[in-house]
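Worked example 3. Consider a protein that binds NAP.
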Amino acid sequence: MTTASPESNLRAGFIGLGAMGHSMAGHLADRGLLAVAGNRTAVKAADFAAARSGVVAASGFADYAGCDVVALCVSADADVLENVDGLAAVLAAGAIVIDHSTVAVETAREAAKRLAARGIGFLDAPVSGGVEGAKNGKLSIMVGGDEATLGRARPVLDAYGARIALMGPTGAGQATKAVNQILVAGINEAVCEGLAFAEKLGLDPERLLPTLMAGAASNWFLDKRGATMLRDEFKPGFKCAHMAKDLRIVQAMADAAGIRHPVIDRALADYSELERRGDGELDTSALIQLKR
Ligand code: NAP
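Given these inputs, the predicted complex is written out as structure tokens:
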């Protein structure tokens, strides 16, 4: 059911109805803000729109022409720029594009530049919190851009954000996400290694997981993926291929920054190996298979 939001009459669009975007767009629709939804594989958008009154499935960029704000949650850098170019051609001056995908800082700057040439605002706004955070509308959103643009786009971000932080100018959101991904990659390495070790020691998962979660080793990944990885269930979630994409971006940034980065290197080698094995579409918890 669609409920109109009393505090905003924004007309929003959303592109990219995958593991994250489907739920995020759903929250926008629930608030009565979503007018148009699109996706590379069009049937996903048609199914999404069919289940929500007032939402149209986009058949081309022209369908977004009347939107005040269009949010993207697509896969990689080229997908973001492709959509930015399409939207730049149709949106009115004063509209805003928000990108929730994880891409390079340079891609965010390029997107902002291409849109600014048409008088359209841009926010890089990558997210953290996983598919669970998207489902329950409690994402942490790391924003790069200016305060005024964020102010106007806020009703959209409020629909699925628990914390919305302006980190600095364009690119600062992606820079923050790069830091986030080093922590996530390191935690995944430790959790998968620890649980593979626990299996060899014959420890009982029913007792192990709550005991670990009650102490200093507790973390999101162990909580959300510990039990499933021990059952060999690797439905994404967050795909290995996306993690490898993120770590390639982060590794280049860390090289440029001149820090020692064995955590990034180990994790990137592991997710690249999983991709080579044909496991790129599995959840990142499939990393436990290499540890075994
Ligand atoms: P996903 O499940 O692979 O979904 C991506 C969606 O975007 C798919 O529906 C795909 O369409 C669509 N898409 C890709 N390229 C497109 C294009 N050029 N034009 C239109 N639609 C396009 O990925 P996800 O897990 O939702 O992640 C999306 C982004 O958020 C990625 O950058 C990822 O790194 C980031 N992220 C993910 C998580 C997570 O936990 N999953 C958390 C934080 C951030 P098809 O149906 O054709 O494939």
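Take a moment to read the result before moving on. The pocket of NAP is lined by residues 15-21, 39-41, 44, 73-75, 79, 82-83, 101-102, 127-128, 130-131, 238, 242, 246 (CB under 6 Å). Strands lie at 12-15, 34-38, 56-57, 69-72, 96-99, 121-124, 127-128, 139-144, 161-168.
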